Amino acid sequence: MTVHTHQIKDEQIKKVLHHANILNDDENFISLRIENGFCNPIYHIRISNGEQYILKVTNPLWKLLKTRNEAIVLDFLHTYTSIPVPKVISYSCTNDLIGYEYILMTYIQGIPLSDIYNSLSFEERKPYLLQLVKIYTDMINIDITSVDVNKLGCFEKIASKNGKFEAVLCPNVDSQLGPYENIYDYSCDYIQFRLPEMAKSKYSHYVSKFEAIIKLLREEQKKMIFDERVVLTHTDIAPKNIIIDPKTQTIQALIDWEWSSLMIVDQDFETMTLGEVWKGEQELMFLRECLCASFGEERMKLYEERFKNRRNMNDAVSEAMVVVAYTDWYHGREHLLDEAEKNLERDVENLFEKFHV
Question: pTM here?
């Protein structure tokens, strides 16, 4: 992963606005790059007629898949569901217009929940958590399936058919591998995808152990039948991606759907029940109570059991990514790297112990 440090100029933004037919010749605009974009620069655009937009410029490390995936999912959610998301105005999966891929979308009034989350009491956080559970429940209740045997992947197309939704899947936007028929193929391929970069890092000695984990997962796969329902996942539910109105204590939008996919329920379920983005056991207990009320106890227990059975595999996928990406995550916060590396090494060693490698 590479942090996007490129800037685009107003002349490039003007081309995007003209191409979308939302800027007349007698109008002008101002743009401001905002801090919320880590991998992709984000620009807040104000046109002299009062309209406001967000321009998200895709990191050139990713080609086609990530931009298209987010634009398709946002358009689908805005058209067919009540899940609050920005409306896509236009997007480009090529560099032809401004030298980068981009998505132009409506501006959502509000602030990221992360701006105030740490200053809120538990009681003040509860309204946001309750609304988030509603959004999450609505998301995974969407009846969406793949049109072919490959059940897991990112989106090339989503179409409505007889009250249900069918998806044409494409490779994972990060690894550019897949789509997949089952979670074991996805997990093993994703770990393998990370190994060449890991071999060039200070943690090259981890490679052989991750290779051993892949072999163990392949053996486990022979005993498994993958027949469970797959769901729409966001994959990065966190306060930074939740836009709120602090005056009304309402969620205005869930943003940043670029990693979204059709996947097993574990992806976001872990965040909603164990995620480190939340503040302590009291908060996690409240989330679980809300999820139980929404799903019902039987469905909740089924999800928890499946997640528990796959926890080690999910952690292996996650830690393989962390090992190669953590330095980018701390770009601009290098003073925290020593502590981050200690935590990384602790977590990876714990993972190896679980797999006995």
Answer: 0.93
